[in-house]
Amino acid sequence: MPEKISISSLQKQIMTDHYLRALDAKSSGKLVVYVTAIFPVEIVRAFEPHIVAVYPENHAVNLIVNGLAEVFSEVAITRKSLDRLGCSYELANTGYLLAKDFSAMKTDDIAALKSVPVLARPDILLACNNQCDVVAEWFQNLSRMYGDIPFKIINAGNRYDGIVNKERIEYVREQLLDVINLLEKETQTKLDRDKLLDTAHKSAAAVKLWRQYLESGRNIPSPMTVFDGFYHMAPIVAERGRQTALDYYRQLTEETKLKIDSSISSVQPEKHRILWDNLATWFNFGELKKYLAQRCIAVVGSNYLDTWKRELDTSSFDNLLTSMAEEYCAIYVTMTIGQRIESWKKMVRDYSAKGVLFHNNRSCHTFSRVQGQIAEALIQEFGSDFKPILFDGDMGLKERFQRHRFETAIETFFD
Predict the structure, then answer these.
(1) Which of the residues 35, 84, 254, 319 could staple to 39 if both were Cys, CB 3.0 to 4.6 A apart?
(2) What torsion, rounded to 10 degrees, do the Cα atoms 408, 410, 413, 415 define?
(3) How far apart are CA 297 and CA 299, in angstroms?
(4) Structural domains of the chain ordered from first start
């Protein structure tokens, strides 16, 4: 029996295959579909092997962690006049796609680029504006850049009243049917509903394991931190609906259970337990993990990682589409202030946390909304010893990270 490979090696293999599939599809005349992170990708996967889905946001993270976000952002700003203050994912991705000739780059940047998988160019663009309206603008710009290739945006209602009623669900459901019609037209094949249900079933099973992994952070001490979670999130985003994602999270939860049983904690000793709001600051991801661990601070949960904890109803095609519509129009960024506050109160209690790192992400204003009010509400609920730390940052561009404020707050509140 072959020896089980490490979880980090398995992820590397899975994500390498993710991008290679798109390149192979492109070379064989099949269609490459770009999808946004919070999109019902199960629909796209049901049309394989006629099309292949790939995630440009995940690829942007690869550029960021390899120190290339600034290089390609400048290309996008210069050649396409994109807003310098805009989304760093869009800037990095657009600049990468525009930079046809990498030979003019600096030697160090060319070397760094070798660690980044090649991203195939898109034939179809599918987005959902539940995470923000920027993704719609981003994909529309890409559509024009490639000669008006097919582009579809699912409008989740663009509202922040927290209401998910019958009318809103039906509105989104009809748009899911429009996506199916578009893919049937572009692939010249009919949707196989049984294949869609099977894909959604695998997706739901992987999501259940992902939820189990994230909730292991409730253990005291915790076997994981959000930095581990941010590392392990790639398959639940990019490979959801595939057997590979299901196998990955089975192995991850098994290994995590062994840590719990052996009382192995991610931070040793664990003195302080806090939470993380928003996306990771990918450019200093490892640095922050080490910095906080040295101060015995375990960041044990994140509302962003919870985004992929939703399970779909796979009992029938109709129920699946309805559950997709309901789940995709009701995520954290569409909550009211009151709903956000209540969700944070529950999370603080569930994870026995004594503070929250509120990352005011300059690329993601919808996710960062009303952080100050949430912080005040948590102090009122849990007392003056509760530690909400607000700092400016970004998921992609290091110049936006407020290092001094972050470190001063950490060193003031945690000895």
Answers:
(1) 35
(2) -110
(3) 6
(4) 7-181 (3.40.50.11890)
Rounded Cα distance, 304 and 302, in Å: 5
The rounded distance, in Å, linking the Cα atoms of 105 and 306 is: 38
Q: For 106-139, what is each residue's pLDDT tens digit? A: 999 999 999 999 999 999 999 999 888 889 999 9
Contact 46, 192 (CB under 8 A): yes
The three state secondary structure string of 292-348 is HHHCCEEEEEECCHHHHCCCCCCCCHHHHHHHHHHHHCCCHHHCCHHHHHHHHHHHH
Q: Using omega within 30 degrees of 0 as the cis cutoff, is the peptide bond preceding 221 cis?
A: yes
Distance CA 150, CA 130 (A): 20
Return phi, psi of residue 75, to 5°: -65, -45
The kind and range of the H/E element at 255 are helix 243-261
pLDDT tens, position by position, 260-313: 999 999 999 999 999 999 999 999 999 999 999 999 999 999 999 999 998 899
Euclidean distance between CA atoms 202 and 356, whole angstroms: 33
Would you put residue 341 in left (φ > 0), alpha (ψ -120 to 50) or beta?
alpha
**E strand or H helix at 126:** strand 124-128
Chain Cα centroid distance, residue 1 = 35
The pTM score is 0.95
CA distance 268 to 294: 9
* Residues forming beta bridges with residue 152, ordered by sequence position: 126
Q: Would you say 267 and 297 are in contact if contact means Cβ atoms under 8 Å apart?
A: yes
Nearest C-alpha neighbor of 88 from the set 401, 391, 299: 401
